[in-house]
Amino acid sequence: MSNPTFKRKTAWLETALFLGGIALLTVFSQAWADNGEQAEEGSATQHPVWIQDPYSGENFLTYVREPDYSLWNAARIEDYEESIQVEADPPLGVLTIDSVNIQVPIYNGTEEFNLNRGAGRVKGMARMDEDGNLAISSHRDGFFRGLKDIKVGDEILVQTTKGVEIYEVSSVTIVPKEDISPLDPTTEKTLTLITCYPFYFVGHAPKRWIVKATPKYS
Question: Is residue 61 flagged as an active site residue?
Fold first, then answer.
C-alpha cells in the first residue's frame, strides 16, 4: 500500500528542486547577460568589409572597427556618414595603428570621396604588396588626426588580400605642402603616411605631416 505522507513529501521536494533550478538558471542567465553587456561596452563595434586586389580580382573578408569620432571635426563626421551610403569600389586593404587608435580602410586613389570614407593610396606609387614607396593619405580632421601622437618605433599593420605586413615607424617629419620629396620612389619596401598640418589649422593647411615606416620583419 502506498504512503500518502511519503508521496506528499516527495512531491514537495521535487517542486522545491524544480523552483530552485529555475532560480539558479535565472541567476546564471543574468550574470551572462551582464558580462556580455560589459564586454560590448569595452570593445569597439566591428563590421565586415570585403577587401579586393583590383589587379587580380582576389577578395578577402575582414573586419573593421567603427571610427572613433572623439577627435573628428563635426563636418568630417557628416561627410563620412554620407560617403558610406554610396556604393563604390571596395577597399584595397586596412591600415591599423593601435598605438594611436587608428583603423581605416584603404581605397585606391586620393579623391575627396575616398578620403571622406577612409584613407587613399596615392596613385602612381607602389601597389599594396609591392616593393617601393607605398603612400597613403587621409584627412587630418578625420581618420588621420590620431597621427599627431604617433612615435618612432610604433607598429603599423597593413592588411591586404595576401595577408598582414607589419611596419615600424622610422621617422616623423613636417614639410611644406610644396615639398613632394616624401613621394620619391624607393627600391626597398617603404610606407609613407601623409596628412595636412597643423592638425587644428583653420582653412587650407600650409604643411604636411609625414610618417615613414619600414617592414619590421623581412
Answer: no
Q: Does 139 participate in catalysis according to the annotation?
A: yes
Q: Please report, as a single letter, which amino acid is at residue 5.
A: T
Whether 2 has a pLDDT exceeding 90, the answer reads no
* Cα 72 to Cα 76: distance, rounded to the nearest angstrom: 7
With residues binned 3-state (H G I as helix, E B as strand, rest as coil), the percentages for the chain, rounded to 5, are 35, 35, 35
Which CATH topology does 45-215 take?
Answer: Sortase; Chain: A; (2.40.260)
Q: Cα(first)–Cα(last) distance of the chain, in Å?
A: 86
**pTM assigned to the model:** 0.80
Given the residues 115, 128, 191, 196, the one annotated as active site: 196
Q: Per-residue pLDDT tens for 49-59?
A: 999 999 999 99
Q: 136, 142, 140, 104: which is closest to 123 by C-alpha? A: 136
> Exposure of 112 by Cβ count < 10 A (0-12 exposed, 13-18 middle, 19+ buried)?
exposed
